[in-house]
Amino acid sequence: MNTNQNNRSGNPQSAMAGQGRVVILGAGESGVGAAKLAQAKGFDVFVSDFGIIADKYKSALEKLNVPFESAQHTEALILNATEVIKSPGIPSTAPIVKKLVAQGTPVISEIEFAKRYTTAKTICITGSNGKSTTSLLTYHILKNAGLNVGLAGNIGHSFAAQVAEENYDYYVLEISSFMLDDMFEFKADIAVLLNITPDHLDRYDYKMENYVASKMRIVQNQTADDVFIYCADDEESIKAVAAFQPVAKTFPFSITRKIEPGAYLEAQTITILLEPNKELTMSILSDLALQGKHNIYNSMASGIVAKVLELRNETIRESMGNFKNIEHRLEHVAKISGIDFINDSKATNVNSTWYALESMTADVVLIMGGVDKGNDYNMLKDLVKSKVKAIVCLGKDNKRIHDAFEDDVEIIVNTFSADEATQIAFHLAKRGDAVLLSPACASFDLFKSYEDRGNQFKAAVREL
């Protein structure tokens, strides 16, 4: 425990504690950012992390002179909070959270807290898949258009830290269902729902309706002056929109039918038309840097946001054309002996892997596996049958992958390191094939994170 915590009464910030005591659970990016903002606003701040705090965050808290503890939760220092800001990674079932809720202490997200202290317009993007790509693309378009814009949420630097230190007019926020669960008064000026497919069901009592309700919190508190954008081809989204009846101006997008106002695909051209005679058209072959069916959806969503903000068509097209996708999302690593190696380690659920396979034009050796979150692999079966020649399992327990695909591919091999998986996949592939790391599972059995998994895969490819 940081010794600062033991002499809190001597902390100069305590003199400014007229607003109460804020306790922050979790000392990662969002927690440290929340501490920075809470301290700036005159709260008595304490940070508690049940895990080991990373050195860079420990240093940041020490620099702020914010008291903290690592590898424990001291109830006497937490249960006396006026309000608690909880990391999205901590489930509501955690014992300390249950005690706080039982005694009536408000438990909120960093996003909820930060929004109180900014008048910036928020563009909030959620969905089971495509959030990061769409958030980055939207940010890229707005920045290129000269808007004073920040990027935060589940990506980039903490929203709260940016509110404390910057003065942006707009924020593009990637919002996970875990963040939405702890948002109450927060309002998105522009809300985007990309899709809803089974993910993280272990946090939702394995009930899809609970997960859907969480995602639809993206529209809570919106008014008729706000905007809601959603995919009209996504079955769960259509049902959710019908059930929750958003009151905001609604703009759907589709690649299967013409939608006006909204966005649609026709003859390899995206048309975005929100108002009469103000349309934007883009060729999916020549105007979009991002290829693949899933990226048409992502581009439509970003394009609608840009048109809502009345950006120039030329700026939108130029930005769509020069955007570079994020690391670990269908990232081309190398071509070795005529075999393409593709890193899609960010695919931590089945639907992400479906999108990855759907975009493949070559025969695939698929590296998959890890921590199974209650996955239903049935949706992959047709694509595996038609495109996958072998599966290389990368995880401690691969039984469910074997059970799901033993009738669909001839070869399924177990491996327990990125090096081993990459070498075996290389030997199973031939010139013209692709080796695709798209795990459909979380990474925490063998790796620190999906980034660590992707980086180890890339390093192994370069050693071939």
UniProtKB/TrEMBL annotation:
Source species of the chain = Pedobacter petrophilus
Short name of any one Pfam family annotated for the protein: MurD-like_N
Key word GTP-binding present in the record? no
Q: Provide this UniProt record's keywords sorted from A to Z.
A: ATP-binding, Cell cycle, Cell division, Cell shape, Cell wall biogenesis/degradation, Cytoplasm, Ligase, Nucleotide-binding, Peptidoglycan synthesis
The protein's name is UDP-N-acetylmuramoylalanine--D-glutamate ligase
Q: What does this protein do?
A: Cell wall formation. Catalyzes the addition of glutamate to the nucleotide precursor UDP-N-acetylmuramoyl-L-alanine (UMA).
The listed locations are: Cytoplasm
Catalysis performed (reactions): UDP-N-acetyl-alpha-D-muramoyl-L-alanine + D-glutamate + ATP = UDP-N-acetyl-alpha-D-muramoyl-L-alanyl-D-glutamate + ADP + phosphate + H(+)
Phylogenetic classification of the source organism: Bacteria, Pseudomonadati, Bacteroidota, Sphingobacteriia, Sphingobacteriales
Q: Which GO terms describe its biological process?
A: cell division; cell wall organization; peptidoglycan biosynthetic process; regulation of cell shape
Please give the superkingdom of this protein's source: Bacteria
List, in alphabetical order, the Gene Ontology terms for molecular function in this entry. ATP binding; UDP-N-acetylmuramoylalanine-D-glutamate ligase activity
Q: In which pathway does it act?
A: Cell wall biogenesis; peptidoglycan biosynthesis
Which positions carry the signal peptide feature in this UniProt record? none
Is Nucleotide-binding tagged as a keyword? yes
Q: Which residues form the Mur ligase central domain?
A: 125-305
Q: What InterPro entries does this protein map onto? A: Mur-like_cat_sf (IPR036565), Mur_ligase_C (IPR004101), Mur_ligase_C_dom_sf (IPR036615), Mur_ligase_cen (IPR013221), MurD (IPR005762)
Q: Where is the Mur ligase C-terminal domain?
A: 328-441
The EC number(s) attached to this protein equal: 6.3.2.9
